[in-house]
Amino acid sequence: MSSETKPSIGEMMAATVPMARTLNLEFTETSPERAVVRLPDQADYHNHVGGPHAGAMFTLAESASGAIVLAAFGDQLSRAVPLAVRAEIGYKKLAMGPVTATAELGRPAAEIVARLDAGERPEFPVNVAITREDGAVTGEMTIVWTLRPNAPAA
């Protein structure tokens, strides 16, 4: 058995997605069922009222969606590339202090893989709730992802 350990999805995201490193995102849970990512309270990323900037919250939520997509479909990477297609975010309440994004797939992973198996380019939503430490939902985001099949080898 190798003494090397496989990097976690959070470690992979921090290594390959510069914005995740820049914002010091903390990947606290990543599974095919849900991903939880925390944005620490950092003055450099505050808005004009002292909370996390809307762009930082967008990046937090999109990063959580990417983490669950990798967790759910990492075994498909040899034949398809996950890509974000579009996103919509709603800012519900003032966010102050650290915030956490919790992402969940909007459709069962098996259904999405079955569509890929059928030769389709499936699109699927990932729903994300952004919460303050007191549990209040400060934002909600839906990111539509696709699994783009790789071109056949020539």
From TrEMBL:
InterPro entries: DUF4442, HotDog_dom_sf. It comes from the Bacteria. This is DUF4442 domain-containing protein.
